[in-house]
Amino acid sequence: MANISEAEIRKIVENIVRGMDAPKSGYTSTSFEGRRLIGIYSDMNEAIDAAEQGYKAVRAMTVEQREKIITEIRKLTREEAHIMAKMGVEETGMGRVEHKRLKHILVADKTPGTEDIVAEAKTGDSGLTLTEMAPFGVVGAITPSTNPSETVICNSIGMIAAGNGVVFNPHPGAICTSNYAVDLVNRASAAAGGPKVLVCSMDKPTLDSASVMQSHPKIRLLVCTGGPGVVKAVLSSGKKAIGAGAGNPPVIVDDTADIQKAGKDIIDGCTFDNNLPCIAEKEVFAFRNIADELIRVMQKNGAYLITKAQADKLATIVLEEKTNKAGKKVKSVSRKCVGRDAKVILKMIGVEVGDDVRCIICETDFNHDFVQEELMMPILPIVRVDNIEEAIDLAVKAEHGNRHTAHMHSKNIDHLSAFASAVETTIFVKNAPSYAGIGFGGEGHTTFTIAGPTGEGITSARSFTRKRRCVMADSFRII
Ligand code: NAD
After folding, report:
1. 277 Cα nearest atom in ligand 1
2. Spacing, Cα 307 to ligand 1 middle (Å)
3. How does pLDDT run across 103-119, given as a tens digit for each residue?
4. Could you tell me if the CB of 144 is within 6 A of ligand 1?
5. Does residue 156 sit within a domain?
């Protein structure tokens, strides 16, 4: 028998324990294993009133006390990451448990806390002027189904660090997972000596409850993470709003790139949580002279190449034609396919593969739906291009002006600079998987609310503050 090291045994035991205590059901939007979740309301007005009490409690705290609550949130998030990961996949049917677990650990480790809040001082002949980052008050946050508990916890850490109270109107399709995270934040607060109810949510969030939130006088800031519809709704609310909207991140691979690394990085990024992260690679523009090699490397790394006819057939399944409010026919992604395993999607066109296949790749032209639509599933179209000018032109068009995220694999500094400048995205990742852009294998803090439309970028505590100035004229200098 082969020798098993102590570390390996520990890993096996950890995995068994994880599997045993992770949920299979036994939860609702208001309870987990018979225990009532804290901070969940049936009426948005009541939820806002409770969040206001939370805000008052945070305002009365020292920064050190706030940081203690955040430390406890980080601890519980690490300890319960596997529960939320499993629940998220079970409830939404989307994503991968292990990747979701890693996303929670990332949030716990790399979401900035109170250290992100810094005051500025300006001194001169006329005295001292101090600018401080103050809370808004009660923040109304709308969260998506794709990173449900990750977004609730990441938003909560940043918003509490900034001294705010928070009320969430989460995506109805991920309400149990989102409310588990709300409860976790409240448990952390109580354990660290804070209020029992610090952040709040709804048992049955609807567009109506979102609308009550958006127009409620006690809500001073709206933070919305989701698709174009909801971002537009909060931006027309008449309130200060932070909008983190849709993306369709293109990748360019030129003929100076390390193709072995590029092929692996792209598949790693594209398949992370089955392509649910809004930053994940969605379409590739590859130089014609390296495209064959790139495809081969992708195949070696878990990609399954389908034909053009299969791609066209798949497009009719993963995209549904709907008529919008204006009576126009629009394509929308089938919820039965978003975030599903490549194996499950391939079965829909009669192709049976094993678990080693994690991505579906195909060659298409630029106008193909797979290039134009934000699919959020492990399907990656590859378009051959002749030169950098064509690559940049098409990639910028495919990004649709979202100014969200773009990627490039190249060693040519001029190419890298030209694309970065032309595409104007909030995140631009060079020679790495997409997730390096949110601090996973790349420098910098993380967020699950990337605010391109309103410009806050990779949001953190300071994004949820308002600047206030205090002036002491003609004195208080020490020189
Ligand atoms: P979605 O747009 O379907 O839903 C987001 C939230 O908005 C949900 O809570 C939903 O109930 C609510 N909502 C929808 N329309 C609304 C309206 N008119 N008024 C008020 N609330 C409304 O999002 P989803 O499918 O869960 O997430 C995927 C989308 O979100 C993708 O487009 C993705 O790119 C984007 N996203 C962006 C970021 C980012 O940081 N920029 C992060 C995650 C997801």
Report:
1. 43
2. 32
3. 999 999 999 999 999 99
4. yes
5. yes
